[in-house]
Amino acid sequence: SEKQSAEILNMRLARLTAARETFEHDLTDAQPIVDSALPSGKDLPGLLATLDAAGQRSGVAIASVEITPEAPPASLERVLNEHGVVRIGLGVRNVNYERLQSLVTVLTQSRRLVDVRSVQFTPERLQASLTLRAYALE
């Protein structure tokens, strides 16, 4: 019927209008999220604060942090463009298995840290060493 056709056309128009509004939306609101995920290479204090907060949440003491530039994985070279990768060596104390598990979980949920590359745990010393990967703007 003509009434049904008009309703169908109105619904399609409403969907097209909503899609147009979505795709024309100014994405500058998303910039803080992008910046926190890809911190500036100069924002090492922010990266250190992220690591410290992860340690505090997990109940471990951050004993050492070593940050060095790292070549991006071949699979990500095109995606990263002007972005670089940093390798983070993290030494922690006062760690048992449960706290280590908590720390790894907190780190992998962080927007700033992309990957936990390796974990070495020495339970008798309550120490662990982790190797992490994070993005940094060059």
Summed up:
The chain has 138 residues and is α+β, with helices and mostly antiparallel strands. It has 5 helices and 4 strands, in the order H-H-H-E-H-E-H-E-E.
Task: Give the helix/strand layout.
Layout: H1 2-24, H2 31-37, H3 44-58, E1 61-70, H4 77-80, E2 83-93, H5 97-109, E3 113-122, E4 127-137
Antiparallel strand pairs: 1-2, 2-4, 3-4
Strand content: 25-35%
**Morphology:** elongated
Tell me the radius of gyration: 22 Å
What's the overall average pLDDT, rounded?
78
**Strands, count:** 4
Structural class: alpha+beta
Question: What oligomeric state is this?
Answer: single chain
Order of helices and strands: HHHEHEHEE
Largest sheet: 4 strands, antiparallel
Distance between the first and last residues' Cα: 62 Å
**Low-pLDDT residue intervals, each spanning 5 or more residues:** none
Helical residues, percent? 40-55%
In spatial order, strands of the major sheet run 1-2-4-3
Describe the structure.
The chain is of the alpha+beta class. It is 45% helix and 30% strand. It is built from 5 helices and 4 strands; from the N terminus they run αααβαβαββ. The protein has helices spanning 2-24, 31-37, 44-58, 77-80, 97-109, and strands at residues 61-70, 83-93, 113-122, 127-137. Strands 1-2-4-3 form a 4-stranded antiparallel sheet, covered by helices on one side. Helix 3 packs antiparallel against helix 5 (97-109). The radius of gyration is 22 Å and the shape is elongated. The termini are far apart. The mean pLDDT is 78.
